Fold:
Amino acid sequence: MNPELEALLKAWDAFLEAPEGAGANRLQLLYEASLEEAANHSRTTKEALHRAVMRYHPRWVRANLPPGFPKQLGLD
Structure:
């Protein structure tokens, strides 16, 4: 997997898993900064990258479930 995409997926996942409040706001700002930086490197828009993150995030989560975790209980 592309390291920049994986870093964005991890940043998005951390934001989604954070409880609401200042910590979540900080994680959202970090995600947006990472998104901006990746967009500048790849010469694409932040919106297109965010759509890619939204599309691949559920697959990435399922791929990173612990062994033996029932897939049907995964985030479908």
Summary: The first helix runs from residue 3 to 17. The chain has a mean pLDDT of 87. The radius of gyration is 13 Å.
